[in-house]
Amino acid sequence: MQIFLDTADVKDIRELAALGVVDGVTTNPSLVAKEGRPFKDIAAEILQIVDGPISLEVVSTDAPGMMAEARELAKLHKNVVVKIPLIAEGLKAVKQLSAEGIRTNVTLCFSAAQALLAAKAGAGYISPFVGRLDDISHMGMDLVRQIVAIYKNYGYPTRVLAASLRTPIHFVEAALAGAHVCTLPPAVLRQLLKHPLTDIGLERFLADWKKVPKTG
Ligand code: G3P
Description:
The protein is α/β, with parallel strands linked by helices. Helices cover 53% and strands 17% of the residues. The chain binds SN-glycerol-3-phosphate.
């Protein structure tokens, strides 16, 4: 399973990419807005730090506008994946972009039916939003399971990118469900590493090591 970072914070990306387990990055307009810097500057830095799929989102809501934005974004770097919202105009754009060889990540997916349509349109990735479904008392992870099963039934090559993940449990459940990718906020990736028994165990090993005689 691949791990992407879900952030536009280049400081976090730089620090966590150094772990060697980050395969890509996803951004969205809200994450970019938090940084208070121009989008193009942020995108250029992310593309320089991580050599893997980098999702950059369009903000047009009509297919021609989305396609024009997508073509510009795709010119930035070979690793750019264009994030397109799962609306009717978005599907039209995905179909055309896929024919042009521009990779897409279809975002704001909240149902298996939407995911099936995105795959038919030629989406490179589908992004089911787990946490936002949990927020409204739906089992967000059920959606990931359904999409994985449906894509498998028909052999769609679209990759399932579990998004809006907020906890380490989300990460493990998405992996068990067979998601191809989990995109994680930096804080969640940091949480994955931590276990109190690891810290206590290491402390004991190091304390005991001091008791080992240095010479025979
Ligand atoms: O990848 C989509 C993600 O950024 C949405 O997360 O926590 O805003 O629902 P959240």
